[in-house]
Amino acid sequence: MVDLNENKQRDQWGSKLGFIMAAAGSAVGLGNLWKFPYMAGSNGGGAFVLIYLALIVIVGFTLMAAEIVIGRHTQLNAIGAYRKIRKGWGWVGGLGVLAGFVILSYYSVVGGWVINYIIKAVTGAFNTSDMEVLGNMFGGMISGTWTPIFYHALFMIITLGIVIGGISGGIEKFSKILMPALFVMIIMIVIRSVTLPGAGEGISFFLKPDFSKIDFSVILAALGQVFFSLSLGMGCMITYGSYLSKDENIPQSATLIPLLDTGVALLAGLAILPAVFALGFDPAGGPGLVFITLPAVFAKMPMGGLFAVIFFVLVLFAAITSSISLLEVVVSFVVDEWKWSRAKATTIVAAAIFALGVPASLSMGIWDTIIFKDLVFFDALGFLSDQILLPLGGLMLCIFIGWVWGVDNAVKEATNGGKVKFTIAPVWGFVVKYVAPIAIAYIFISGLLA
Fold it and tell me: Other C-beta atoms within 10 Å of 423: how many?
């Protein structure tokens, strides 16, 4: 009886487009615009892209469909969903809720950096291409005490303000605005980047794979990027799937979302790397590629000031569409399980996540103490989420679908009881049961032992 009441009160997406935009927005984030280009630049360009695309097909679609199926079937949060299907398995959903909490704590810190850089771009602070000057600017900002915490708080307040409005009135409404705007802006940046003199070398680096660059570290980096970029293993798609009506086409949605996400990642690479090559900078700039190298690129680019503003607003929009899904994972759990109102749950959860983000921010400056494997607190949170919680959550998801709940039951839900075509269901079932878990387990364990 409790579950029925919960389902009656549960908000739903107002339209299929709203769900696709919100789910794609969850996937499209800093992982695409900040992380993907520097990961490609640091891992052989086209070689990394090739492995990434292969893993999107093998792991990305498989887990995307699996998470949406579980969420839609149960109409519950990540923990409640697993527990409803099979008692004793709620802890698997707990990995996702914990991952969402941890990721948003440091994700919001980076989101705050982006807001700061929008202000810098508007005020013309990027008027130099001197990498040392720009490096000092970035280092001084992130190592500060109060400035990055203020912007971290501002980013969390924006996220809270959207999530507190609910699914159709908050997340869906804003996703329908932010996602189309994001696509328009990134295409503008791509056109400017690929038409710069000398951009061809960057395009070739990004799209032409050098197979000699492919080693285990590249595969591990690509798998981590797939999880991070598609919001897999963190309960987002289970939670978003729980707000779907029973007549939605899950196989179609599970195809469209990775396609949109991958499209943005590839566009981000084309927006950044050709310009970096054209203007003589290092593509393997690491995390500083966006915050140090790109401002130098914009300084040397015709109309660079305008494109700098457009770019960092683009990055902010992408960050927000992901942060709202991460917050919603935890809020959904609290509302379902603890019976708090959405307003109370969103406010208290957001405050707790902000609090965890404070030491993450300070670890870039006054609290730069190594706490684990040569990692400061900020990087340790990233290791916990990327190397442990996400792949472990993905592995257990495959085991749960393939060996506990059963592929037949999952396919029945995915096809709306046989009403929707899922022509590759046998292949999907085989990948869920055997290919994906073996691949994830091997890479996961090898990564921990490395």
Answer: 8
**Distance (Å, rounded) from C-alpha 75 to C-alpha 241?**
8
Tell me the C-alpha distance between 243 and 167, whole Å. Answer: 8
Report phi then psi at 275, rounded to 5.
Answer: -65, -40
Cβ pair 249, 243 in contact under 8 A: no
Give the per-residue pLDDT at 9: 58
Tokens 């329908």: give the residue: 176
Q: How many CB atoms lie within 10 A of CB 305?
A: 17
Q: How far apart are CA 396 and CA 234, in angstroms?
A: 12
**10 Å Cβ neighbour count for 140?**
11
Q: What is the CATH number of the domain that holds 154?
A: 1.10.4160
For residue 367, give every residue at least 6 positions away whose Cβ sits within 8 Å of its Cβ, in sequence order, or none.
359, 376, 377
**What are the DSSP calls for 235-260, one per residue?**
SHHHHHHTTS-TTS-HHHHHHHHHHH
Number of domains in the chain: 1
Q: In whole angstroms, give the CA distance from residue 97 to residue 87.
A: 18
Check pLDDT > 50 for residue 84.
yes
Query: What are the distances in angstroms from CA 253 to CA 57, 337, 409?
Result: 14, 28, 19
Main-chain dihedrals φ then ψ at residue 372, nearest 5 degrees: -165, 125
Residues ≥6 apart with Cβ < 8 Å to 119: none
Give 303-331 as a 3 state SS string.
CHHHHHHHHHHHHHHHHHHHHHHHHHHHH
pLDDT tens digits along 22-54: 888 888 877 777 778 877 877 878 888 888 888
Calpha distance 227→47 (Å, rounded): 18
